[in-house]
């Protein structure tokens, strides 16, 4: 591992489920501190790609390095630096958020004092502090999502990967989550998220990758995407729809 390594480097990544090839040779480099949005239609291969990055799926071929650590050669070291928030996070419903965070911190081997202070900070930041001793089973979807996000952040990961983190959240909770992510990004955390909400990608992320049929169709900042595709002033939604429908030529 070196300090100059990209936060994430993917080379020639492929994944087949039986006969079906879901990811067809993706190359992607994300630099430390970048906030990256992965967009694509349903079934494009976003979740499959990210699950390979976090070590939940084994690639059919290709390489993935997290801060210079090959995630197949040294999966534990790669995972230590990474957090994964799936689209349907699993919480232990019988635990309170505080117990859940203590439990997750314990899995990472974080000492009790550090865990308690991080849990306190995260629960306060996400406005869950007053519910810290209530069981998660009575929580709304948004509260559960926030507790799961706190769990993902408890080991202070350098790379945070979130699959559809804002789906199904009301406006107030979505704002809290977006603000926390923007804050983490400003503090230097590398963040990758998938979303179908174009406004989120447009406002929150630095760089966008569009995946379709298991391949990276286009990549860049919004300004770069507009320029590359000759669509001055176009919204991300317009660009996205033109690219995936083939009206704009991918570059
Ligand atoms: N466990 C699995 N077994 C077989 N096929 C799968 C499996 N998981 C995903 N697929 C298929 O692989 C392709 C890519 O799926 P994936 O979930 O990665 O897409 P996605 O871009 O995340 O989609 P969405 O936006 O709908 O979440 C799809 O055709 C999907 O049906």
UniProtKB/TrEMBL annotation:
<dbReference type="InterPro" id="IPR027417">
    <property type="entry name" value="P-loop_NTPase"/>
</dbReference>
<dbReference type="GO" id="GO:0016887">
    <property type="term" value="F:ATP hydrolysis activity"/>
</dbReference>
<protein>
    <submittedName>
        <fullName>ABC transporter</fullName>
    </submittedName>
</protein>
<dbReference type="InterPro" id="IPR050763">
    <property type="entry name" value="ABC_transporter_ATP-binding"/>
</dbReference>
<keyword id="KW-0067">ATP-binding</keyword>
<keyword id="KW-0547">Nucleotide-binding</keyword>
<dbReference type="Pfam" id="PF00005">
    <property type="entry name" value="ABC_tran"/>
</dbReference>
<dbReference type="GO" id="GO:0005524">
    <property type="term" value="F:ATP binding"/>
</dbReference>
<keyword id="KW-0813">Transport</keyword>
<dbReference type="InterPro" id="IPR003593">
    <property type="entry name" value="AAA+_ATPase"/>
</dbReference>
<dbReference type="InterPro" id="IPR003439">
    <property type="entry name" value="ABC_transporter-like_ATP-bd"/>
</dbReference>
């Amino acid at each position: 591992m070196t300090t100059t390594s990209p936060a994430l480097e993917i080379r020639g990544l492929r994944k087949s489920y039986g006969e079906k090839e879901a990811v067809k040779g993706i190359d992607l480099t994300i630099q430390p501190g970048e906030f990256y949005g992965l967009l694509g239609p349903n079934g494009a291969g976003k979740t499959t790609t990210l699950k390979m990055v976090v070590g939940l799926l084994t690639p059919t071929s290709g390489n993935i390095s997290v801060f210079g650590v090959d995630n197949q050669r040294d999966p534990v070291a790669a995972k230590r630096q990474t957090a994964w928030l799936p689209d349907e996070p699993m919480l232990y419903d019988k635990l309170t958020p505080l117990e859940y965070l203590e439990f997750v911190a314990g899995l990472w081997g974080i000492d009790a004092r550090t865990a308690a202070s991080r849990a306190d900070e995260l629960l306060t930041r996400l406005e869950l502090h007053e519910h810290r001793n209530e069981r998660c089973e009575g929580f709304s979807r948004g509260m559960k999502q926030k507790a799961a996000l706190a769990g993902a952040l408890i080991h202070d990961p350098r790379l945070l990967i979130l699959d559809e983190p804002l789906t199904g959240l009301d406006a107030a909770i979505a704002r809290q989550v977006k603000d926390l992510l923007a804050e983490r990004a400003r503090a230097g955390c590398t963040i990758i998220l998938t979303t179908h909400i174009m406004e989120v990608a447009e406002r929150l992320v630095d760089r966008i990758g569009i995946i379709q049929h298991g391949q990276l169709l286009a990549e860049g900042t919004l300004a770069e995407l507009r320029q590359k595709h000759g669509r001055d002033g176009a919204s991300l939604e317009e660009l996205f729809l033109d690219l995936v429908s083939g009206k704009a030529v991918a570059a």
